[in-house]
């Protein structure tokens, strides 16, 4: 058996047989087990999990019933080559199906964070939203019902026409995109855009590549659709193309999903050279690229290491570009968009209507007003505030010797690594109880020495508290 593939079961974490099932599925998702690969024997698994063979058999039988593995008489059990992810069960157990598809990963840890948020003296650097103090102050006009009904006449399958025009102008001015208005679809945020694309171009059981570590591992939409994720490591320039190509060949990937600007959680910016090479590789294997670019508005501009093109600009025919206002407007205005070839955008628009994902006119009117309200000037103030906060964090990193802060070129996430002990779930929970919430690497599909913090939520008054808790954490990890 491959080293580090299997871990001893912790009975305190819940049902033992469910934990065994999760380990098998996680090893498939990460590419450690490929379709057709044999599983260790029941006796070997019982030994490594430190549990009884009966529990192992129950877990494997459940996986077989779900179509994830198959049994071959006399030769053991194998990863199913044709049915993985389809979850075709002869006996419908709704609770099992729901929990496997929709439960957030590491739900218990996130619940602990949510509970602590409501208590005093807690610094929440776990949250995925920018601090509300930094959100731009956008004034929304009042509309009468008559005016709203009139504006509805400008709604199409692609969205509210005035909003489409403003997004198009914004993308052309900022990124030099060149596309027609029939090549842009308005969606209810960036995540809905990705969900819509996956539902349209993939089938349950299909595999895609993502960078690792990646926030995509936190999204329930992949479990809900039965899509398999294969994590591809990164270096300083971005996704490792040699490992990506090996995974394409081994795992029959159908698409590549990347977050090239201020990657979540590492903050990494993919180099121009790597972007061009990624496009060339995906052309070679005829793989579509989904470019998730929801943080580009928060670039520190001159502080970015180099000028880089969007993947869509390099190859508009094979790259679907996903953008959003949600990161800079908070949860109140979920507006996103997809840019791609007219023929495909048309199909996405029809799929969106069929799924009843189409948005009402009102939030789109508000979003169109964002671009009227000196958006660039207001977002520039946000960038300056974030840059100043990043400087404070960088100065802290220079003052101490244990933690290493990755370069921050934009966005509001920072990635911190160290050389020392592993940050276990129990240590992370101790830190929560001590008043500091962080997002450890185990939430992002990798158990490496790293964690993400949302530095937009640190102010000068909280800095001493942050420093003291980080000093405490360093002692636990040495």
TrEMBL record:
<dbReference type="InterPro" id="IPR000524">
    <property type="entry name" value="Tscrpt_reg_HTH_GntR"/>
</dbReference>
<dbReference type="InterPro" id="IPR036388">
    <property type="entry name" value="WH-like_DNA-bd_sf"/>
</dbReference>
<comment type="similarity">
    <text>In the C-terminal section; belongs to the class-I pyridoxal-phosphate-dependent aminotransferase family.</text>
</comment>
<dbReference type="InterPro" id="IPR004839">
    <property type="entry name" value="Aminotransferase_I/II_large"/>
</dbReference>
<dbReference type="InterPro" id="IPR036390">
    <property type="entry name" value="WH_DNA-bd_sf"/>
</dbReference>
<keyword id="KW-0808">Transferase</keyword>
<dbReference type="GO" id="GO:0008483">
    <property type="term" value="F:transaminase activity"/>
</dbReference>
<dbReference type="InterPro" id="IPR015421">
    <property type="entry name" value="PyrdxlP-dep_Trfase_major"/>
</dbReference>
<feature type="domain" description="HTH gntR-type">
    <location>
        <begin position="14"/>
        <end position="82"/>
    </location>
</feature>
<protein>
    <recommendedName>
        <fullName>HTH gntR-type domain-containing protein</fullName>
    </recommendedName>
</protein>
<dbReference type="InterPro" id="IPR051446">
    <property type="entry name" value="HTH_trans_reg/aminotransferase"/>
</dbReference>
<keyword id="KW-0805">Transcription regulation</keyword>
<keyword id="KW-0032">Aminotransferase</keyword>
<keyword id="KW-0804">Transcription</keyword>
<keyword id="KW-0663">Pyridoxal phosphate</keyword>
<dbReference type="InterPro" id="IPR015422">
    <property type="entry name" value="PyrdxlP-dep_Trfase_small"/>
</dbReference>
<dbReference type="GO" id="GO:0003677">
    <property type="term" value="F:DNA binding"/>
</dbReference>
<keyword id="KW-0238">DNA-binding</keyword>
<dbReference type="Pfam" id="PF00392">
    <property type="entry name" value="GntR"/>
</dbReference>
<dbReference type="GO" id="GO:0030170">
    <property type="term" value="F:pyridoxal phosphate binding"/>
</dbReference>
<dbReference type="GO" id="GO:0003700">
    <property type="term" value="F:DNA-binding transcription factor activity"/>
</dbReference>
<dbReference type="InterPro" id="IPR015424">
    <property type="entry name" value="PyrdxlP-dep_Trfase"/>
</dbReference>
<dbReference type="Pfam" id="PF00155">
    <property type="entry name" value="Aminotran_1_2"/>
</dbReference>
């Amino acid at each position: 058996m491959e080293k580090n593939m299997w871990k001893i079961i912790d009975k305190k974490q819940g049902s033992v047989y469910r934990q065994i099932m999760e380990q098998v599925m996680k090893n498939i998702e990460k590419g450690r087990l490929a379709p057709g690969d044999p599983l260790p024997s029941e006796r070997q698994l019982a030994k490594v999990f430190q549990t009884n063979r009966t529990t192992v058999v129950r877990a494997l039988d459940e996986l077989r019933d779900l179509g994830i593995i198959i049994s071959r008489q006399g030769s053991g059990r194998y990863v199913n080559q044709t049915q993985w992810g389809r979850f075709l069960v002869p006996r419908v157990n709704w609770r099992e199906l729901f929990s496997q598809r929709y439960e957030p990963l590491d739900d218990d840890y996130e619940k602990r964070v949510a509970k602590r948020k409501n208590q005093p003296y807690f610094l929440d650097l776990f949250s995925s939203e920018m601090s509300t103090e930094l959100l731009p102050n956008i004034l929304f006009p009042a509309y009468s019902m008559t005016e709203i009904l009139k504006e509805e006449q400008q709604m199409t399958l692609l969205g509210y026409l005035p909003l489409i025009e403003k997004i198009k102008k914004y993308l052309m001015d900022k990124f030099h995109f060149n596309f027609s208005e029939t090549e842009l679809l308005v969606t209810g945020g960036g995540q809905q855009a990705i969900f819509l694309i996956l539902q349209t171009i993939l089938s349950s059981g299909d595999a895609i590549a993502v960078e690792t570590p990646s926030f995509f591992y936190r999204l329930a939409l992949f479990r809900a659709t039965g899509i398999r994720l294969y994590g591809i490591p990164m270096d300083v320039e971005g996704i490792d193309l040699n490992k990506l190509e090996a995974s394409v060949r081994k795992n029959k990937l159908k698409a590549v999903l990347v977050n090239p600007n201020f990657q979540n959680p590492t903050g990494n910016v993919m180099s121009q050279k790597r972007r061009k090479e990624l496009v060339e590789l995906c052309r070679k294997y005829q793989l579509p690229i989904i470019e998730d670019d929801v943080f580009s508005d928060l670039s520190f501009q001159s502080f970015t290491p180099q000028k880089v093109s969007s993947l869509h600009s390099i190859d508009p025919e094979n790259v679907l570009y996903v953008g959003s206002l949600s990161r800079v407007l908070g949860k109140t205005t979920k507006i996103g968009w997809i840019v791609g070839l007219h023929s495909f955008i048309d199909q996405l628009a029809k799929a969106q209507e069929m799924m009843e994902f189409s948005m009402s006119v009102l939030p789109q009117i508000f979003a169109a007003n964002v671009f009227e309200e000196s958006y660039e000037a207001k977002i520039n103030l946000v960038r300056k505030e974030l840059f100043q906060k990043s400087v404070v964090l960088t100065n802290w990193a220079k003052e101490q010797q244990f933690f290493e802060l990755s370069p921050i070129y934009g966005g509001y996430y920072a990635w911190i690594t160290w050389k020392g002990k592993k940050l276990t779930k129990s240590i992370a929970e101790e830190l929560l109880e001590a008043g500091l919430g962080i997002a450890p690497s185990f939430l992002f599909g990798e158990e490496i020495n790293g964690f993400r913090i949302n530095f937009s939520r640190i102010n000068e008054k909280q800095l001493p508290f942050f420093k003291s808790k980080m000093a405490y954490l360093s002692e636990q990890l040495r």
